[in-house]
Each structure stands twice: as structure tokens, then as C-alpha cells.
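A quick aside before the break. I want you to see a complete sequence-to-structure record at least once, exactly as it would be stored in a machine-readable document. Don't worry about memorizing anything.
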Amino acid sequence: MYVRGIRRLFRFPGYVVDKITLDVGMAQVNLRLDKRRRLECPACGASLGGSRTVRQTARDLPLGLAFVVVVVYEAVQGHCSACETWATLHPPGIGPRAKATDRLMAFVSFLCKHLPVRRVESIVGVSKATVRRWDKAWLAKCLPPPNLDALRFLLIDEKSVRRRHGYVTLVMNAESGELLFMAEGKKKSSLEAFLNKLNDAQKARIEAVAMDRNGAYYEVVRDELPEAEIVLDKFHLVANFQSVVDEVRRQEWRHAEGQFKNVVKGQRYNLLRNPENLTEEQAARLSDLLALNAKIHVAYVLKEAFRHLWTYTRRAWAAKYLARWTAWAQDSAIEPIRRFVRNLEKWKDGVLAYFKYPITNAPLEAFNATVSRIIYRSCGVQDMDYLFLKLRQESLRANLQT
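That is the input. The structure line, written in C-alpha cells, reads:
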């Protein structure tokens, strides 16, 4: 049947609606060129001499119960005598290769922000590959480029996005939380690709960089940003020493005999939890363990003492306390702890830099949950460029037009 009165929904400058045909579950909108339209060259703006028209189609937003809406239009191919180029003109709002209107791609992108790709596939009625392609195209068009001019503090970390050690390197603005860069791998070249984008003035403005003890990242930052302070992430350091405490526990369990094995077994999280987070039952079990084993007791006390380091507000005071804690750890005569201290000595400046620039990788660590959620919604990682756009969308909390 033929329908009138809804033509205003399909306004494309330079085109007029010729006919709208509705059928069960679908609609077709036929456009024809407006004879009053002046054809302009997209390269220079001069008049374009049309040579022929080609009939093409594009998907559009659903119309009522017609979930499949197809726009049929005439694309004009012509030659510009001013700049000697050939061009093909499409209705504004329809990309030359998208096979979809901009507003449909915006709608799909909006759905992808809240739903898994497989759900969007069933709603829109296109394949998962097409959903990802439209979402990627819309995000690339609408998201602003990373702001590299006002950088003062950077956060750098790696995140596993695939099985078998499939890592990416992430760089975030510590002040705004904007994700600036993502590259596959966690090698020197992964971070160099970002720093090579910065000019000398942008590099000079960066005051501090927070990261964990990744030697590859450290070398790159030291070479490319010699004036910036490297701040070792305190949460990584605390977690590293917790691993040492657990290593001591496992060694003692292996050497234990009889009933004492049962006392040590299952105590890992009681040892690693902060005392204020323990229940009465957990605190009682931990107290029994510490009373029975001197090495585990020493490791636990040192863990709590190391955590106290971050309560200082001045670098000089923190340096004195760190030297005292290091002496205690060396006197413990427990090899895993002494090994940790020897390694920590190499990174002492990075530890103490926190008390001048109190920045941590906590925003990036919290962002890891967002990364996992987006990978799940996208049904895995097929395209690293698309993943980066999705992560930037979350970090900017962009409100895209739909």
C-alpha cells in the first residue's frame, strides 16, 4: 500500500521522497534527486557536472513495526572541471560505503553501549560483524581525539585481553581519567608508540608517571621523559609484598608436620586481609597461626609495617621510615623477604616519588573491570582499534547523539 504524511521523517537535503511502500515487517523509501539541487564537488565546492546516476540502497531506523527500513536513492557520479576529479554524491547522512544511514549507526552504537553484540544483532537484524563495523564507524566519527596538550600526570599499566598472555598497554590521563592510548603487547615498542606522538613541548609538561615495576616501561619513560618523576604504584608494591608473605606461608606449610599443617592451611586470605576487615572467627584463626609460627608472624608484622609507609605525608619522613623498615626486613633472615628488599632498593626513588606526587594506578585498575565488561559485550576481541574506541567511549562517558 502507499502511505502519505510521514515523508518528513525522511528528509535528505537535495532529495525528495518519491514513494513509501509498507509491507509486513518492512518498509521501502524511494528517493529521487531534487531537480533544483546544485551539484557541488566535495573536494573544491565548484559545480559538478553529473554524468550518470546509480541506484543504491541503505538501511535506516525502524519505522513502527517495520523493523527493516530500506532507503533507495540515486547516487550521482560526476566530473569536476575545476579540480579535475571524479566524485560520487550520496544523500547527506548516508555514507558512501556504510550501506546505512548515520542515524541508524548512531542507534546501533547506543545499543552496543548497553547490550552485548549478539543482542543488538537480534534487535537490528544484521550480523555481529556489521554491528561492530557500524559501531566502530560511528565512534570514530564522534569521539574527539585524545587531548595531549594538557598532560601533567600519566598512568601506565598492562591488561590481559586474550588468553595465553594476550596483553595490551594502556595509558591514561591521571587527572581527567581519559584513556589516551592502547597498543597490543607490553614491550618497549608498545609504549614508545604513544610517546612518539608527543612533541617536545608536550613531553616537557609531563611531571610524573605512575606505573608498576615493569622494566621495559621504565626504560622508555626514562629515555623519552627524562624530566618526569617515575612513581611506583603503591598498590602494586603492597600486592608484591603480600605475594612474599604468601610464599613464606607456603614454605612453612611444606615444612610443617602433623596437626600444624591444618593450622596453616586455608589461612592465605586471613594473612593478606587488612586487620580491620577480619571477622572475629578469622581473627581468632589468624591469632592461633601467628602464635605457632615465628616466621609467618614476622612476615605478617612486616606486611602491616610496610602498609604504614603510605600514611606519611612528607618525603623525608617516609625515607627515614623506609630505611628503618628495610633494616627490619633484612634482620628477619627470611630469604623471600630479603630478596624483596634487595629488589626494592633498586626502585627506592620510585617508591619515595609518591610522597611528592601522590598518584596511583587505582583509576586504571578500576578501569580493568570496564575492559572485561566491554570485551564480554563485544563477544571477544576481534579488532584492537575498535576495542580502543569502546574504551575511550567509557573513559570519556560520551553522550553520542542517537
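Two observations worth writing down. Residues 40 and 47 are 5 Å apart (CA to CA). The two ends are 30 Å apart (CA to CA). We'll return to this after the break.
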